[in-house]
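note to self — DONT lose this again. spent like an hour looking for the file last time. sequence + predicted structure for the chain T wanted, 442 res
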Amino acid sequence: MAALLGRRGGGSAAVALWRAQRRQRSTFDVAVVGAGIVGLAAARQLVLRHPALGFAVLEKERQLACHQSGHNSGVIHSGIYYTPGSLKAKLCVQGAALCYEYCDQKGIPYKQCGKLIVAVEQDEIPRLKALYERGLQNNVRGLKLIGAKEIQAKEPFCRGLMALDSPYTGIVDYKQVAQSYAEDFQEAGGTVLTDFEVTDMEMAKESSSGSEDGLKYPVIIRNSKGEEIYCRHVVTCAGLYSDRLSEISGCSPEPRIVPFRGDYLVLKPEKCYMVKGNIYPVPNPRFPFLGFHFTPRMDGSVWLGPNAVLAFKREGYKLFDFSATDFLDAVLYSGLWKLVLRNLSYGLSEMYRACFLSAQVKELQKFIPEVTVNDVLRGPSGVRAQALDSDGNLVDDFVFDGGTGDIGSRILHVRNAPSPAATSSLAIAEMIADEVKRRFEL
């Protein structure tokens, strides 16, 4: 925490200078809590729009983009799946275009390798055609339906009756993108404070600046070490902890976050030739997740999966990671049980596949029959911050809200930024900056 702690000098002049620097650096116009890709994109957009103001990003880890932003598939989505007119649909299509443009400007490597959504059964074809119509309504570029021969021309090892071809779907390393956002933010004058876990917020009782105009920086944010910063306004982009940050600030705990872990398999390096681009199943509308898919990576590897099982820790990337607090938060929430009971067979199937490699490979063989258990290894995992309401409904769209009272009126919570939030990050940032200006009159 060099930006907050400094280093005490030996003489009174050095001490006075340190105190002045500490005070100057610990007061900001806006503090953004969370240095994932959405928080960093929002902070970058805010400082570019308001260069005369002071901005800070507060991150509890020592590194940036450690969690969802650093544990995702790396796909630049095109916007096919989402309900026409929804924020997800609008922001994904805009965000994908902005993402490609940004990567070109910054020299960040990506591959526009495309995606096939493949129907392997006759009863999937009507759903595939409905997806095509939805994609057209969402203004997704280049979509077309192709038959079995065209599928094999694009993916020689893939089998299917019909596919939806999305040529502008791509892949990128989102952690690298997030780091670039942070560099832009800092170069524009923003401050990034890592190892700063926010545990408390309250209104200051007297002016931190000594101004006769009253409290210029009235919100105090404290971390787990008891260190403080003062600010005028707060934006939270806390992902897996968005509901807890809301409660800390005195705002509503709804929607609640329930963590779902997704475990990937990886193709052995000598078998990666079997996959050229993204290969996805036709999603089943009765179930909440997209199903197993093939995802090439920027390093040349190919990820397979993920599954979706309840995580017993919000940042638990290993099978036996456990937090009593996180576990009880999830299992004592009535919304989770309502979701489980509605999707019991799906949930049991996911748990079975999580335990048995052969069950996962069987799903993959529907698309590439040549894949065998000997061709795959267990790979990395990610944890999805799934927002869930008290009726057991997955909150499928973006949720932005504030609160009431002195602190609540000074906070904008990004409560739910689901996939494709990484793809949409620059478009989301523009929306957050618009909302900050409207709410806080910056």
